[in-house]
Design brief:
The chain is mainly α. It is built from 3 helices and no strands.
């Protein structure tokens, strides 16, 4: 027998805070990349150059921020709000 999902729940699919943080980073990266590419297409001058660099930097840094081993302690702390997870020495 399955447990019914509560109606009106803010997290009906039971995502962990770490999963939500990864999704937030992915959404923020997509937004920065889209705005950067829009700046390169619709603006002239230095703003176009900065927009292109910001888009490339966001797309390159996204996997580093989300999936590298160095980010694991930060993400595990988000998954455990009481701070009893692994710590850096």
């Amino acid at each position: 027998m399955t447990t019914p999902v509560a109606t009106g729940s803010i997290n009906p699919l039971k995502y962990t805070p770490a999963q939500l943080a990864k999704a937030g980073v992915a959404l923020l990266t997509a937004l920065v990349a889209l705005l950067g590419f829009a700046a390169t297409n619709f603006v002239d001058g230095p703003l176009a150059t900065v927009g292109g660099y910001a888009a490339v930097a966001a797309l390159v840094l996204n996997p580093i921020v989300v999936f590298l081993k160095q980010a694991a302690p930060v993400i595990s702390v988000l998954g455990n709000p009481f701070g009893t997870g692994p710590t850096q020495s």
